[in-house]
Specification:
The chain has 354 residues and is of the alpha/beta class. Helices cover 40% and strands 24% of the residues.
């Protein structure tokens, strides 16, 4: 908090995306840079932590994608950060069941947090895995990009339109100079032009502009087109363009005030899947329809796999596996809240799960 207050004493205001970037990624203050936020003892739980069946299904999808590409001699899995290594560990465990694929696969974990990188290294011990901080360092393929709850953690801008004027959300010091608060300032003309070009303005006159995520999507599309491959991403979000304020903060599994504890709570927003699809298409990637996590995992055979495993279990273990399965699939849990998007090179015709 002190760093943000000191910045505001000099700059008077900082835009929302800059505030989020400091709160999450600053080397000293940043939430992701200094702690492990995952699991029951952390602030939230992701699908890989719920059940290893999630990772197993993703592994099957990756192997199937590789086969659809004609079983190339090398295949690169690029996992976009924000994890504790559980998904990568489960992927490797499953990949070993497909010997030809396992010989060909290499995994790059794209992680800018040294703290999370060290946590991941404890769980993931394999010569197949290497860590990099910059997505631009990926220079061969085919590449399968995997993003589970990655894009929702990237900084965004929020803008609203009143009459014909546009205003951007900023963070400023309160009157007592000890607390911070939100305010709105006039938006730059270049930003208004970009927002109009992306058709983000609707009847709500409110815009969430994921400026960092768009850059990532553009790079991913370029890499897919250059080296072949695809993107598979999971995140909570909406399919219809109902732009509204979805910014939220979570601490110890409960919603918290974004401004009260920057650096000590997670900050996320809901993905505008219509926008993401359009960005990828504009960059010459083919996008399948967006489906729910429940639909995707069931098409991969997660229920059948759970039934097979349950046959060898005692009652307590059976109850546990089905309880976890419900959390992943039920519409009131992760099943409907989380959506899945796939993009691939235009020439490819892979559709498993969609």
């Amino acid at each position: 908090m002190n760093k943000i207050i000191n910045i505001l004493k000099v700059k008077k205001s900082i835009p929302l995306d800059k505030f989020i970037d400091i709160a999450l990624y600053d080397k000293k203050l940043g939430y992701y840079m200094k702690k492990n936020p995952f699991g029951k003892k952390g602030d939230f739980i992701t699908s890989p932590l719920v059940s290893s069946l999630f990772g197993e299904m993703i592994a099957i999808w990756c192997v199937s994608f590789w086969e659809n590409l004609g079983r190339p001699k090398k295949i690169l899995i690029a996992e976009l950060g924000r994890g504790d290594g559980t998904l990568c560990k489960d992927l490797l465990h499953s990949f070993k069941n497909f010997k030809d694929f396992y010989k060909c696969v290499e995994i790059k974990l794209i992680e800018k947090s040294d703290k999370l990188k060290n946590i991941q290294k404890i769980k993931v011990k394999s010569e197949k895995v290497k860590w990099i901080k910059n997505i631009n360092k990926l220079n061969y393929g085919p590449i399968i990009f995997l993003g589970n709850e990655f894009f929702d953690s990237l900084p965004i801008k929020q803008i609203y339109k009143k009459k014909k004027l546009f205003f951007e959300k900023h963070v400023v010091l309160g009157k007592n100079k000890k607390k911070i608060e939100f305010t709105f300032k006039k938006t730059r003309k270049t930003m208004i032009k970009n927002i109009k070009k992306l058709k983000l303005i609707n009847k709500n006159n409110f815009v969430e502009y994921p400026i960092v995520a768009i850059k990532y999507l553009e790079i991913i599309a370029q890499k897919i087109n250059k080296y072949n491959g695809g993107l598979l991403m999971f995140d909570y979000g909406y399919i219809k363009n109902n732009n509204k304020d979805t910014l939220q903060s979570v601490k110890k599994h409960k919603y918290s005030n974004i401004l009260n504890t920057p650096g000590y709570s997670d900050i996320t927003y809901h993905i505008n899947y219509k926008l993401f699809s359009e960005i990828l298409k504009k960059n010459k990637a083919k996008v399948r329809k967006v489906v729910t996590q429940s639909e995707f995992l069931q098409k991969l055979g997660i229920v059948e796999r759970a039934n097979i495993l349950a046959k060898k279990m005692d009652f307590k273990s059976k109850a546990k596996i089905y309880f976890k399965l419900q959390k992943l699939l039920h519409y009131k849990e992760m099943g409907n809240l989380f959506k899945v998007l796939m993009a691939q090179k235009k020439e490819n015709k892979f559709s498993l799960g969609f």
